[in-house]
């Protein structure tokens, strides 16, 4: 099962994440064609994340219900994804002809329906896969996400002047092809893992505490990579070099995410999540204090590895805390907290707070504070629960 399902999940996340990259690249041009001025783009992106925040959690809860019947979740997700891809595909063709309202409705529908490819596939893993298979597939899932992140800067440059229709067509076809195989994936997972459910963790923390950790970790990532990384690199490099420097974070992520399978097997999801957050805090401080490009590259590489540990640990923790029957609730909540962090980051840009010198100085240290607090909250919650159990 690993040899088949793992690479499939990697491709699914690669195509899905790249479709978001294509959307962000061409959104300003498409919006301009329907008469939406450039100043509203950031608010559209903010609205997308608000939709993710609400729908990811709702879709996770729905997946819990649908997965009670083997073979039901996969086909439903495939149909939702097909509708989502059609809406996505329509954007570059509708833009020259449509009204702003129709264009915004299409983007909102695509954002909402794309939630089918976040929490629900994790529900399949949590309900059907053994612990070992779940961790291996999760590592490849994250590898696909990291690969998309590494490619994104190059894709942004390559597609800057391209006709948007071809990238949207290719993205839509790739996502539909991958998502349509969810029916096969559910059948394969249930055939192998059904009857051997993953054991519950020895120590459980309240799901709200875990969601707070996810929100803090997500905030640290959003500020560190999306707001701070480029300005930090520009202290030592030229703007044209960013397309080669920004992927360093994702190189660290991808190089460590597969070996983390062995680390998590030994130390568990919660410890890896806490250690990743602590390492991320240290790497973020190193990035702020870097006195050379080499030191900054090393800090970004380390922070990428740390974020891989956070994501890997969070995936496993969400499925463990939701076991059994609430995997979608916990994992959907986790994705919603990541979206909440993105809302905060885009809100900073929308309000131009990052243009204020004093606020920028605070932003430099915010990732370290958020990641350190995430590690502290998790360790405290684990210690508190162990005390009660003891």
For the secondary structure, the number of strands is 0
Q: Kindly report the name of the CATH homologous superfamily of the largest domain.
A: MFS general substrate transporter like domains
| Cα Rg | 20 Å
Order of helices and strands: HHHHHHHHHHHHHHHH
Q: Major beta sheet, specifics?
A: none
Overall mean pLDDT score? 88
Percent of residues in β-strands: under 5%
Shape, per Cα inertia axes:
globular
Tally of helical runs = 16
User: How much helicity do the residues have?
Assistant: over 70%
Terminus-to-terminus distance: 39 Å
Specify the CATH architecture of the largest domain.
Up-down Bundle
CATH class of the largest domain: Mainly Alpha
Count of individual domains: 2
Structural class: mainly alpha
What name is given to the CATH topology of the largest domain? Growth Hormone, Chain: A
Detailed description of the structure:
The chain has helices at residues 2-33, 41-66, 73-94, 100-113, 119-128, 131-158, 165-180, 182-193, 207-233, 242-245, 248-257, 260-267, 269-289, 293-322, 327-350, 357-389. With 390 residues, it is mainly alpha-helical. The chain is globular and about 60 Å long. The relative contact order is 0.15. The model is unreliable at 193-198 (pLDDT under 50).
């Amino acid at each position: 099962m690993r040899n088949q399902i793992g690479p499939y999940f990697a491709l699914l996340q690669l195509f899905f994440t790249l479709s978001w990259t294509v959307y962000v690249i061409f959104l300003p041009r498409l919006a301009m064609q329907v008469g939406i001025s450039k100043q509203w783009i950031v608010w559209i992106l903010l609205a997308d994340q608000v939709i993710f925040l609400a729908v990811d959690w709702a879709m996770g809860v729905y997946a819990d219900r649908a997965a009670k019947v083997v073979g039901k979740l996969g086909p439903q997700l495939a149909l939702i994804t097909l509708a989502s891809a059609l809406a996505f595909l329509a954007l570059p063709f509708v833009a020259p002809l449509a009204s702003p309202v129709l264009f915004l409705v299409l983007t909102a529908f695509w954002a909402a329906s794309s939630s089918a490819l976040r929490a629900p596939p994790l529900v399949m893993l949590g309900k059907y896969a053994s612990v070992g298979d779940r961790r291996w597939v999760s590592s490849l899932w994250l590898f696909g996400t990291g690969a998309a992140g590494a490619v994104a800067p190059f894709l942004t440059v390559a597609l800057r002047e391209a006709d948007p229709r071809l990238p949207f067509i290719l993205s839509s076809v790739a996502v539909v092809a991958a998502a349509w195989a969810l029916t096969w994936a559910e059948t394969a997972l249930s055939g192998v893992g059904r009857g051997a459910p993953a054991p519950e963790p020895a120590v459980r923390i309240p799901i709200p505490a875990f969601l707070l950790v996810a929100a803090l970790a997500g905030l640290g990532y959003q500020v560190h990579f999306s707001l701070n990384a480029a300005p930090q690199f520009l202290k030592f490099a030229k703007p044209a070099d960013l397309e080669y420097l920004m992927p360093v974070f994702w190189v660290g992520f991808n190089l460590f995410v597969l070996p983390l399978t062995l680390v998590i097997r030994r130390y568990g999801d919660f410890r890896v999540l806490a250690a990743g957050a602590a390492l991320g805090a240290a790497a973020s401080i190193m990035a702020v204090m870097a006195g050379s490009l080499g030191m900054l590259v090393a800090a970004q590489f380390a922070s990428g590895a740390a974020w891989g540990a956070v994501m890997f640990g969070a995936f496993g923790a969400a499925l463990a805390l939701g076991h059994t029957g609430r995997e979608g609730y916990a994992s959907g909540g986790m994705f919603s907290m990541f979206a909440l962090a993105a809302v905060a980051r885009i809100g900073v840009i929308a309000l131009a707070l990052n243009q204020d010198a004093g606020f920028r100085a605070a932003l430099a240290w915010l990732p370290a504070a958020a990641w350190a607090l995430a590690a502290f909250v998790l360790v405290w919650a684990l210690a508190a629960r162990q005390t009660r159990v003891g």
